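Regression test attached.
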Amino acid sequence: MTTTHTTYREAIREALREALRDDERVFLMGEDVGRYGGCFAVSLGLLEEFGPERIRDTPLSESAFVGAGIGAALAGMRPIVEIMTVNFSLLALDQILNNAATLLHMSGGQLGVPLVIRMTTGAGRQLAAQHSHSLEGWYAHIPGLRIIAPATLPDARGMLRPALECPDPVLMFEHGSLYNAAGELDEPAEPVDIDTAAIRRSGDDVSLITYGGTLPTTLTAAEQLAANNIQADVIDLRTLRPLDETTIVDSVRRTNHAVVIDEGWRSGSLSAEITARITEHAFYDLDAPVQRVCTAEVPMPYAKHLEDAALPQADDVVAAAQRAVG
Amino acid sequence: MTWWPQHSGRWAEMAEFRMPSLGADMERGTLVEWLVHPGDTVHKGDLVAAVDTEKATIEVECFDTGIIDRLLVEPGQTVPVGTPLAVISAGAQGAPSGPAPAEPAAEKPPPPRKHKAALATPPVRKLAAQHGIDLAAVHGTGHGGAITHADVEAAIQQRTEPHLTAPAAARQRISPYARRLAAELGVDPSLVTGTGADGAVRARDVRAAAQEPTTTAPAPSVSRGSTAMRQAIAALMTKSKHEIPHYYLTSTIELSTALEWLRERNRRALVADRIVPAALLLKATALAARDVPDLNGHWINDHFEPADAVHLGVAVALHGGGLLTPSIVDAEQLPLTEIMRRLRELVSRARTAHLHSSDTTPATITVTNLGDLGVESVQGVIYPPQVALIGFGAVVHRPWAVGDLIGIRPIVTATLSGDHRATDGATGGRFLTTIDTFLQHPEEL
């Protein structure tokens, strides 16, 4: 086994390359994934390597190409559909909710949709309100979908394979701020399971529960808390639907304090769901109200200082954890 | 129309005697008995009722002076804190206004019309009537002393406020985990100072309290409760001796068969499942109470009310002084192992001041066992409104006639304290004999 220096972007590209190489039913389609190399350069070079049959540029028509992906999956292919940002995915929401998520049920189990939809989510790069929102919590609301959100290099590299093997439609959310994250990665890469949450740091004083783009923020906060003698358990959910309730509840039972960090808006959010589950299953282990650190309930501002002010920052997490631990 | 003003005037002076909160964690109480009757005159500070809380039986004083108009709750009923128990009238009438309703009845709507003296427009009168506000008692701030809409609203507010704020103030802020931890560590949460937001008690406060010997549960509960508990015991026992004509019967029961059977049984049982002789005595008493039902029940309103089941009160002496008598519900139906388990739990819970409310189910007959103190016999005081109390002394080895020979046998002295109003010595004698018979056939217990 060797270790290579790589980035989150390259790790996903490598996962795509592996999938395309290993299974000829796999193909990638989306806006600018071919000649342009992908809006975020994830698919750079794949057109040259695999050809236009398997790396397909599509028109700006989310509903059409997601629908085409669903049709291809029904016909036995293993399509990977890229939607540039989660904001644009709303144009394909009808296909995702009314077709991809429901067909297995409505066909009495006859029509599975083994489709993977990748999309970018999140803010932090001054792309303003129409390119910056975190709407994965909305998709996590929908039965019939599996929602994953890799936050680390091994997960970026290792979650695509089980997603393609999953018989249900899988939505993979890649936080835009993570693409340049760099580090060492073992090769050959191991598949990462998409059923369980991961504990990224262990501590007994407070559970910090997060996923995706806010994991680095949360780990920074955990470092600062450790300097103040508060040891945090940092849970990376990885899979947002179904939620790994066991890991969450076990941690809270141990620490008695919980903070949920979610880049989505607070109202009706994934953080609300996690808080509710903690209350349902670990109420008598709670020593303080569950704290939440979420994005301010505004359309994401363009200006850097306003965007920073709206987003969950490490200091906010530290303050929330201190409120919880008291 | 002389009727209305009189009635409304009297009504306005009605006071409600409510189930008091006798501790921060008390949510409900059981009315053990009334110490007053409708028509009795009571003064502020008079004892009017005995209430069984989860910690002790406490006789409750009333805060009003007047005449007991109606009793709303029957002895034996358990009601939440704040429930009206009785209506006290301040009027001069010496007699109750009528037969007492069976259940706490909603107050009659107040008179739709008010005194002529008060100035108020029809809409204001209507509002007052809707909310049961007596306009005569409202201070008018309008033109010429007229009562305005705002005056009535203020009166409504003033009237409802105490009801709204009282439970909130009594509720302690404590985290769910801290509450659980307090129960596990035997800490009384009401004695813990909270350091969380708005004084909320958190786990660390409970742990700190658990480490301070002065605030751990058994000690403070007893010391805090001891005055009230002592008073409750004093009042109840005084009442018992004042009102109940006791008679006493004593039997010496030979236990060699029972103890031999128990030794054999315990030898085969796991340590945790072993049974102590006290459990045999309790079960035999419960079965005897079932078979001689004249001793199992309550003396209420000058007659005996037999009970359907045997709820066996068990007197537990607390380490810091004082006494609690939790009960084993349906004791006559429980197998011996279950009696043993309940006994062990009851003693432990009573001594850590964590009795469950089910433990305070009113007993129908009580056992006091002072054997472990080496006492040979006990002639106890009946716990009103029960009509019998059984005392057991220590199991001792004594010379015993076996046929024409003298043998050394284990014996126990059982004493019955009986209420002579309810039974006579013959019934009591039958009861003790029945206990003896059961103890000679331990395998049937």
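Expected vs. actual: identical. Chain B touches chain A at residues 175-180, 195-197, 202-204 (CB under 8 Å).
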